[in-house]
Write the structure tokens for this entry.
Amino acid sequence: MKRNILRLFVIELFFFWICPEIVANKVNQVWEKDGCNFHLSYDIPSGCDKIILEIHSDRNKDVSKLTDVSPDNTRGENQGMVHGKDMWFPVIDLQLKENLHAVAIVANVSDGDHYSWNSNFWNSYAELRDTLVFANHLEHWENHIYVESETAELKSFYLQEIVELSGSGNHFDYQLTTLSPVWSGTIKIYSHKAGEKLLLDEEVITDNTVGKEIQTDSDLIRENLITSLSQSISFILSAQNLNPLSPTYGGLFLFYDLDSKMYRRSDWMWTYGPAIKLLLDASKIPELAEEFGYEKLIETARLIGEASLRFQMLDKDHPAYGITICRYDPRMIYDEGFSGYLSPADAHFLAGWGWIPLYEATGDQRFLNVAILQSEQIGKVMEGDSIVEQDFVLKANKWKNWTMDESGFGMIGFSETYKYTKNEKHKQIGKEYLDGLINVLEDPSGLWYRTFHRNQADHTDDCWPTGRPVGTPILMKDGQTTRGNGWAMIGLLSAHQMMPEGDYYLKKAIALAENVIGKQLDDGSFPWQLYVDPQKVGISEKGTPLWSLLLYQLYQYTDNPKYLEAAQKALLWCMEHQYTGDDILARGGIVGDTWASGIVYRHYYPLICTYTMDWFGLAALEQLILLENN
């Protein structure tokens, strides 16, 4: 990739009406771009008291919306939409600094229209206007404007900075830093004199920089594994939220969107866990420690963990006290279009994959303490109910009505915490937690059914009513997915680690794995849904690396070469499908474009999920360990 691109423009400007003295003099301009830095140097005409800069990123030429339907979406309109409501997702792809504001220009505003800005974290419900200026709560990359309107359209979105000048005849130096080495757009510079704003310069910047082509080979040898791991870790490091004013500073964006060329969703905190584990384990590999810096890998993992700690519910009177807010979802049925969710399963998944490994690596007692508190409070949530609650929905102020197969993965939090506490109470809570799920979700073959719906009046359906009389629980047996059964497998293997007596949970894990392996495709991948033709539903780009890791772990417990072979086939598929195209930010990622690739939105758009890369990296590390031991 070219690191230095010099852009030099000297333009003669004759604005007789603003500064007559420049008729015989040039306005000296220099524009330079070096990596992510733009430097502007100007001689400003005398009498000008302000310079106004407008930065228009090409990423905002066509701002994506919640209601967008991919051309590949054969299902039509996205589920959960409400007429007259939408969410716009403008991009901020510059480093934020003082006096930098965002401006949205809106057309066709009607009386009674309203909006909210970044309402996942902030309450800002107000009357919609033609021009909106946002000085606070700006996020790197994806931002949200929730809109209640039948007619409003977002016409443009840009960043603006007003620079006060100290006197006449000033020389003006200005620097802006982009979040990506590839940036295209338009920069407009206005002068301000005697109340008038006049355009001095408009520079259109086109940057077609492409990265150096990745040379990959899919043989499972150390050199190739290190190359693939390097690309995965580079992707994860680039996906870190480094906006110090963001509530999720230090955390990770969940997706990179190849269609809109931006990172999305830093507010899925539960997904931080496996990235922490991967970075800590990668720091022990000499080649990776040298390439990225041992301290950098450890510090990044610590920052990710610190971000997640900020979301633990510490209100002792709250029904979900001690549990972590795991995510924020766009939901049009709720005020301002978002709700937060506190999930025992997701929160303890985070503890098992992230907090306890951080405690092991750093000795920071806080990470063990929060895991202990969470274990005990999950036990209290389960008092009188053998099936763990899935989510406490903040906007509904109720527990959700349904529990899914994915709750199984919370078991790892109990197993990892128990390693250090050796407290039999923690083991017993974990056993009751997983056994309750097994009793209702495990089918006779060993696979897990998808969902148990309580169908109770004191719970919220959260956009998913059963259509049946309230009071009758419903077990939803269809829709079994590769990823969902992978979440269950995490629980079974974690339970075996904590309670290996008689191989009770290991036998269940083997039965589940046998079913999933039977659905593995010839190329090593797994379908998204286990019982549906992958030609119809697509490949599980998240489930394939997950199952590669899980089968490596199962092989360690059983020494059965069948599981190793399946794990390696899946790993090879991942290596062969790492992105090597022109989009620098997507490099090394594994792209998915099914209905589930965006999980709750952006269905059928090409996305790279960060935790997909975590699973892939952890599976590759397992293969490295095998090579070292043989």
Residues 271 and 611 are 6 Å apart (CA to CA). Confidence is low (pLDDT under 50) at residues 1-27.
